[in-house]
Amino acid sequence: EPIPTSDALGLKGASEGRLDECERRGLLHVGTGMVGFRHDLTRRAVETALTGSERLARNRAVLEDLPEDTHPSLIVHCAVEANDVDRLIVVAPRSARYAAAMGSHRLAVDDFRQLAPYLDRLDPEEVGALVGEWAREEFLIDNIDEAIKLNETALSHHRRTGDTSAESMALAQGSHFYENAGRRERAEASALHAIEVLGPHADGADLARALEANAYLAMMAGNVTAVPDFVDRTLAAGGPDIDQRILIRSLNHRGIVANIANYPGGRAD
Length: 269
Known about the structure:
By secondary structure, this protein is mostly helical. The chain contains 14 helices and three strands. A three-stranded antiparallel sheet has the order 1-3-2. Strand 2 and strand 3 form a beta hairpin. The chain is 70% helix and 3% strand.
């Protein structure tokens, strides 16, 4: 990926003259404020010409020179190549979340997978949430079996730490994964358990999320009587500050079953 020209010039041994020479030789493309290889084949040729020790040393040098506000994916790449695990476990989650927010789910998965060997070095309180996010990204690129495994790992972490809110979230998410894997009974059990673990004094946002998971399953089954009830309970639990994603999904569930009964009765929702 191209990087800001200022970052490139900040590296040891770099200069405007050397950038100009590389551009004239057809190696680099220097645009408005950005510089990158003209073609990925050129990058690969340069990279493969380095010995293992040269690559290690140069990536370590780059890591030392790059400013903290450098694009996180570049830092992750250099940290992996430099075998800098301490830097990797700090930056990879940030890079993965940035990629996910931009809709680059495969890149997010790549970043999360870099962390797999080092999960035991992370704060136990953070591992469950991180693995849950990773599971969602695997699901979004259609790795459903892997998503289920990761979500079960996250669920185990939440149960060990006694975080019922996070446990309910993982159960609700898992119900979606199981449904898409064709495991209907497991999906229904997981969605109902997402409500049960919250107890009688559940936080409204947590309860809304769990109820929405049940509304989704009822909608997928075409249950025109159960969906409106679940949606009404979801909206009541979430209140005026309901999470927008939960609100949108809930209204869609209600609209879809309204269309089943009387098309286009659900258009407004």
